[in-house]
Amino acid sequence: MKPLRAAIVGAESTGKSWLTQSLAEVLRARNHSAHAVDEVLRHWCEREGRTPQQHEQMAIAQQQALVAQKIAEQATESWLLSDTTPLMTAVYSQLVFNDHSLDSLALEHQAMFDVTLLTGLDIEWQSDGLQRDGAHVREPVDQ
Q1: Which residues of 53-74 are buried (b: 16+ CB within 10 A; e: fewer)?
Q2: Please, how many CA atoms are within 13 Å of residue 19, restricted to the half-sphere of its CB?
Q3: In this structure, which of 3, 76, 109, 137 has its CB flanked by the most CB atoms within 10 Å?
Q4: Which residues contact residue 108 at a Cβ distance below 8 angstroms, ignoring those fewer than 6 apart?
Q5: Mean pLDDT of 82-90
Q6: What is the pTM of this model?
């Protein structure tokens, strides 16, 4: 089976991180090489102790793309599972800041994936600290 590059995207608290890690574990258990790309925004929020401002969105999106691209280049025979992509940073920038400046970067990066999995809203929203805005944000993001 040819390794795939899969992007897992969706609104907050829809299971992206869990799904990314779980898929990687299942693939490894079946003797496939699999790499999971962590969500850059989560680590950024933990480090900074806050959510990003508008002028910080581009750097976060670029870092998310760079990490995935580096892993893809180094692990050409491995599955690549990305816990979100710059596409979601662009969606949030549009909703929160009315900023469309990330759109072209997001769409260009999204093209590197063979498949994009969109998580649904059927999992109950849970707070994880700084990063999450609330259940009311999920539906507009999903749209």
Answers
A1: eeeebbebbbbbbeebeebbee
A2: 19
A3: 109
A4: none
A5: 96
A6: 0.87
